[in-house]
Amino acid sequence: MNRDSQGVHPYIPNSVPAVRAAMLREVGASSTDDFYEDVPGSIRLRRPLDLPAPIRAESDLVRHVEELLARNTSTRDVLSFLGAGCYQHHVPAVCDEINARTEFLTAYAGEPYEDHGRFQALFEYESMMGELLQRDVVCVPVYDGFQAGATAIRMAARITGRRRALVAASVSNDKRSKMIDYVRPDVDIELVPFDPATGTLDLEALAAALAPDVACVFVENPTYLGTVELGGPEIVRLAHAQGTLTVVSADPSTLGVLAPPASWGADIDCGDIQPLGIHQQFGGGHGGFIASDDDPTVVMEYPSRLFGITATAVPGEYGFGDVAYERTSFAVREEGKEWVGTAAALWGITAAVYLALMGPRGMQELGTTMMARTRYAMTSLASVPGVRVPFAVSPHVKEFVVDLSATGRSVTSVAAALRERGILFGVDLSREQPALGQSVLVAVTEVVTQADIDRLAAELTEVLQ
Amino acid sequence: MSSTEKAATQSAGLPVGPKPRPRRYHQASWDEPIIFELSVTGARGVLPPPPEPGVTALVGDPAAELPAGIGRAELPALPELSQLHVVRHFDRLSQETLGVDLNIDIGQGTCTMKYSPKVNDQLARDPRVADTHPLQDPCTVQGTLEMMWRLERMLAEISGMDRVCLQPAAGSSAIWTNVAMIRAWHESRGDGDQRDEVITTIFSHPSNAAAAKVAGYRVITLYPDSDGYPDIDALRAAVSERTAALLITNPEDTGIFNPRIEEFVGIVHEAGGLASYDQANANGILGITRARDAGFDLCHFNIHKTFSAPHACGGPGAGAVAVSAALVPFLPRPTIERAESGLYLDHDRPLSIGKVRPWYGVTPNLVRAYAWIMNLGAEGLRQVAETAVLNNNYLLQKVLEIRGVSAPYAVGRRRIEQVRYSWEELAHDTGVHSEDIGVRAADFGTHYWTSHHPYVVPEPMTLEPTESYSREDLDEYAGILAEVAREAYQDPNAVLTAPHRSTIHRTSQESLDDPAQWAITWRAYRRKHLGKS
User: Fold this and answer.
1) What's the pLDDT at B2?
2) A426-441 pLDDT, tens digit each
């Protein structure tokens, strides 16, 4: 065996010693050290980095990582009711097939000529999201739903020139944390309580808080607690009476059955596209959307890229390009709107594939099935002794709150017992919404069947006995 | 060879000999309609499950019972396609896209377009990564937490910093995270209001300036001195008791390493500010020099650049921030901590800036980065850096042989991992601009980028050949540039009317800047240009 080849690395073509030597000769360097002549000795690292020994053979590397992965439990191997912003929906095989295409996976910032397909796919993403949301403007994805919400609030503040924002108190702690820290130099966020009976926004409290200095009201539909925001149209009416904009964070997977915020008269939509054909990935599969009507005052406040369709030199040929590029930080640095950078384009293409596969009827059927099974789960769990479903008067689509307080058991202990039985119960709300007691947020997507729900109810009954 | 075989060979024109260069490329051009134009009423691409009869018997159809105005009145006007037609459409669009795997992707300088190993893609797609939920009990995701914990420590060693957080979504998100921590640090010391200025440089990524502005800072931008280094006298003049931080890159996008970087950091520290290092350009200095060794308090890496995660048409990327001990309390929450019982997530961090994105980071890309570093080790990372720099200096020599191009600043000096070139002379001589060269370069199956704005270097071109490309690749790329430059001098119209072999022809920018004409969705296009609602 030729040990000289040890230094040759498969990912580094010019690690072949003869090639390397020839290239050094050609540029007149005695060693690669010559290239670092500007790096002062005072900051040169004089020892090798202290890293684990390399695992050079691909087969060994696979084994190493798989040994680590063996310590994980996949939601495909157990029954999961976890949601709270990251959902186990079915990922159609075609979604994984397209987003693994080497061209899409490894492309980046090509121009409309060499990357026409990337532009068209993302224009189609914008367009299909536009149909789902009934909006003429949707941006190329931002990082995630948190970022979309935070930016939508900033957009509303810039448009109105006001600095107060009223945010539903049901919004998750994590999302609020991001939004508050992101907007605080320019926007003050105040929380509006939710109605303890319905889990939707307290409209009286909203009316009392609204004033002509409020930039926007921010609500979610469905809410973080799973309830459908029945007050949506009234929220918009109250806000508009004060010249206040309404920002609605919508779950796109519910829009086959729920009216889009645009139909209420809402001003800016935002949210997360993870439910649209993207795996959970331990929280690594998020992308954010922002949408609005085609009002130039609003369009000019988007920080992200907006791909538009245009003509080419050849009649009948579509081309694509950046709309109003001069508003971006790419064009004018800190004078642009917030910033734009690498975000979540491939998830946008994946969502486009998903929406194309689902079509209008698929989205409606998805919502119909989730609503039916979720209501079934609410009814089933409410019949478990001591278990209460607090917001049952409100419609729900895919998630609901279960209150275990009357059982005398903590969420932690019940979840641990169910985990032993192969069930990931739901998200513990006892810390972030203490007023709800020992409550759990339970998600029921289309991958959860009636039999799964029956099993949860039965196992929960046993665990609580 | 029999006479029959000889005759056949001759009639087929064999042997064909070596391929001519530049190659006679043509981009795929499917003339593919917009997906809505492919819609067939009633066609289905995938079927969701219906509710079971037992479910319906108990609860009916809750969707149908939603009140008016709350339930959706009309189905969304999405296209309707059978499954093959969805696959075919997006496969065709993918063919009309050039990724790293298909081209010599050295024309997107600053972005480190390196090879993303396929084995790492496979690992990232494993259901034990892809189908795990972030709120599973930590005892059910110890494998992922272990990889993240180890990756944090490896990046801490690579940067010399004390602690790493993998939560940021990408590079600019990491810049934001560092700015947010800088702000929180000053606030914790009671001088948050007083320190309201951030200093950066014009050759740093625009997001350094933009993120600082979003965080409420006034931005001061340093320009290069005559040697191309950020002007140290301008820095001395800029710092004051109002200075919150310096956000700087080294080497900057010129590829020139700033040898006085410790002085820069010292000047800012003396004024009471923090120094944050944008390590987007780290690929040429892995194992050579470290952020902490130059005195920096914070830095960040782009996992999708230096650490090989694919660029994915513009994300998901992943970012890692690294800080000195003083900044650790301000890191985004939760942190990953190790106890005897295993790894856990610590949310109880009162000084934390909170969340910068949902959950803990872009997990699939963190798995890729972990596997990539584990495969290379210390020696391999050093080899990455040295080869990236060798490739860059080799390409520099080749490119400078081309008429009309120059490498401004530090003339005759070596560069680190990239070079910002200028076609000023060629533009002056021929009227062909850098953007035109980029469009024409697409005709040869490659991508080319100018630079960020503003164009401080006139007629810019930024090439970063990384460690992934062979000598032949570099020769071919330089050959393409030489050919386009030759055309510019001899037949400028050939360049100015490009592309000639692309998917499409030259587009009109005008309508994209006109509110009356721009169309960001198909429904807007139909309304504005086809008169349909």
Assistant:
1) 59
2) 999 999 999 999 999 9
For residue B492, cis peptide bond before it (omega within 30 degrees of 0): no
Answer whether B301 touches A (CB < 8 Å): no
Residue B506 per-residue DSSP state: P
Rg (CA), chain B: 27
Print the domain residue range for A23: 1-35
- For the entire predicted model, the pTM comes to 0.97
How many domains is chain A built from?
A: 3
Chain B residues whose CB is inside 8 A of the A143 CB are 169-170, 173, 315, 357
Report CA torsion sign: B494, B496, B502, B506: negative
Q: What is the CATH number of domain B122-375?
A: 3.40.640.10
| Stretch 498-527 of chain B: residues touching chain A, C-beta under 8 Å | 499, 502-509, 511-513, 515, 518-525, 527
Cβ-Cβ pairs closer than 8 A, A with B, add up to 736
What does the alpha-carbon distance between residue B311 and residue B306 come to, in Å, rounded to a whole number? Answer: 11
Asked if A112 has any chain B CB less than 8 Å from its own CB, the reply is yes
Please indicate, yes or no, whether residues A139 and A278 belong to a single structural domain of this protein: yes
Closest CB from A38, A181, A331 relative to B353: A181
Residue pLDDT, tens place only, B47-89: 999 999 999 999 999 999 999 999 999 999 999 999 999 999 9
ipTM for the assembly = 0.98
pLDDT category at B533 given cuts 50, 70, 90 is confident
* % of chain A exceeding 70 in pLDDT: 99
The residue written with tokens 């995938």 in the block is B46
Is residue A197, in this structure, part of any structural domain at all?
yes
Compute the distance between CA of residue B344 and CA of residue B275 in angstroms, rounded to an integer: 31
Contact A246, A217 (CB under 8 A): yes
Interface of B with A in 8-47 (CB under 8 A): 27-28, 31-32, 34-36, 43-47
The structure tokens 């001990």 sit at B325
Termini Cα distance of chain A: 67
Q: What is the pLDDT of residue B462?
A: 97
State yes or no: pLDDT of A2 exceeds 50: no
Tokens representing residue A179 in the block:
């939004």
A255 and A111 assigned to the same domain: yes
B392: which 2 tokens? Answer: 């860059």
- Is A40 part of a structural domain of the chain? no
Q: What is the pLDDT of residue B315?
A: 96
